[in-house]
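I am still getting used to backbone structure tokens and would like to learn alongside you. Would you supply a protein for us yourself, any chain you care to pick? Start from the sequence, derive the backbone structure tokens from it, and show both lines together. Go ahead whenever you are ready, and we will take it from there.
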Amino acid sequence: MKIIKFRIPLVIFDMHVHGRGFMQWQKTTVKQVMAEAMNGLINISAFMPNTIPAIINDTNLKHYFDLVEEAKRINNNKFEQYIWFGVTDGNLTYYEQALLENYVIGLKIYPLAPDGKGVTTGTIGVMHDSTIVKAMLLAKKNDKVLAAHCDDPIIIARLKYNPIEAEIEYVKKILKLAEQVPGVKIMICHVSCRQSAELILEAQAKGMNIAIELCPQYLWFDNESTNWNENLHSIFYHCFNNLRGSEHRKFLIGLLASNNELVLIDSDTACHAREEKLRDQPGGIPSNQELVPVIITLAIEHKISEARVAQLLSFNHSKFFNIPVPNELVEYKWEFKEDRLLYNNGKVENPWNGSRLYFPILN
């Protein structure tokens, strides 16, 4: 039995989760996602707006807030939870008002193709660059964050799949538009490749407040089947953005050891049931219970300090999102063992099953 001691922050963030309700009660609910987050030592989550119906108006926002508050009560979670508000080309009035709510952490941009179809998220999304600039201006005005899902719909429509070029080109678009709004805070979601990361690093070097969001799946898995469970269907490793080659995974791991305060670790945990993944092949990997274990495991392997891990899991988020948290670190014992965690009581297949990670020993 391999056990180590490692200190982590008292408060841990995950600012990219998907919890369902509304017309999708068959999926993993907000209540269950929060319970799984807490099982993974995560205190504060921020929920994405691509629900059905989407969180793009005041009515749906209020209803979803009620779901979050009920989930907090049931799970005895005393921390504030947050919601991203979805941007469309026609809801300027709604998202201007939504940003006034303390629990709205910012605005989320999804690409929308000229035919009005979403790339990976149904029909929620933005077609016009002018809408993105308006969203950036409002985010800056309210000192909030604009999060961008980067997957170019024109490239995807032409090639009929999501190549690495689609991510890179949309990152370029967002960075170019951000030059029109100096000082705006932007989070590029689930960065999966070296080229995107390098573009963002270049923007940071110019003084732009652009964060790189890394997710555990891109740090642990790749499209060469590294760390995959060979007994699982490959569809359970299908996510957006797609998993890339091992050289990209290794480059992203290298960012963990840097002292970059604009690197954030979030889960992008997904909610798709086993049968749904096999039938409809939606993108997404459940991952909030593995977020902290993956970072601890990589920290041990790559000799990353406790101080840096604290930045990645908490302090960078606190600074970027203006959410004060204690600087306190808490010591846990961590056991290196095989992942046997369940998602949604086993209804969601866990692709981490069989991975050997450091898990906290909770007394």
The chain is about 35% helix and 15% strand.
